[in-house]
Amino acid sequence: MSQLRHNYQDELETFTWSALVAVGIAIHDCKIYSKMSEHLFIMNWLATAKKRKIFSKIVANELQWLIDEGKKKSINAQLKFKIEYLYATASGDVTMQNYYFKFTHVIEMLRDNGWENFLLTPGKWRDLSESIKVRKGNFIFMDDARLQECFGIQGQILKPFCLRVYGDVEFAKSLFIKNNLPVEFVKHASNEFSYFYFLLDE
Questions:
Q1: What 3-state class would DSSP assign to 130?
Q2: pLDDT for the residue numbered 5
Q3: What is the spatial distance between Cα 183 and Cα 162, in angstroms, rounded to a whole number?
C-alpha cells in the first residue's frame, strides 16, 4: 500500500470515527431522539467540521459529499449509515457488514473501475425502453424512489428491487457475488440489459 493511500485511510478513519463518537454522545445525552434530529445533528457537525477545518484536506471530498447528500435527500440521505460505511472501508473488511454497506461498497468499487450509475425517477425508470441503444461503456440504472424504500434502518433489505446493468456484466456480477449480496442475475433475450434482482434475505 502506498504511503498516500495509507495516509488517506488513516485520515478517513479519524474523520468518520470522530463523527460516530459525536453521534453516540448525542444519543446518550438525548440530543438525538428521532431520524430528523439525527439528520440535523450530523449536518450541523459536518458544517462545523468544514468551517473550522478540523480534519485533513485529504478527506475534504468525503466531507463535502456527505453535506451534499444531506442537503439533497434530507433524512433519506441516511448519513449515519454512509459515515459507518466510510469508516468500515477505511478500517477494514466490509464482507461482514450489512446489506446496505455491501451494496454501497460494490457501487463505489464499480465507480472506481470506470462505471457510471444513474438514479432515475420512477417515470424515467418505466420509460427506459426495452430496446434502448446505450452508448459504449459500463452503466447501472436504478429506480431512485424504489432504492430509497428497500433498505431498513439496520441496513437490511425490506423490499426486493432491480438494477439494469449494461456493459461488462460478468465483472459486475463478480463483485456482487464476492460481497455475498442476495442477487439473482437474469439476461433478457429481448434487449441488451442484464437484470440484477435483489431478493429478500430468507
A1: coil
A2: 55
A3: 9
Is the pTM higher than 0.70?
no
Handedness of CA 124, 140, 69, 40 (dihedral sign): positive
Long-range interactions of 167-172: CB distance < 8 A, separation 24+? 167/115, 167/137, 167/138, 167/139, 168/138, 169/194, 171/113, 171/138, 172/110, 172/115, 172/138, 172/140, 172/196
Q: What is the pLDDT of residue 96?
A: 58
What residue type is assigned to position 20 of the chain?
L
Tell me what the mean pLDDT of segment 37-65 comes to. 94
Taking the C-alpha atoms of residue 167 and residue 30, their distance in angstroms, rounded to an integer, is: 48
Cell numbers given for 87? 469508516
Higher pLDDT, 179 or 188: 179
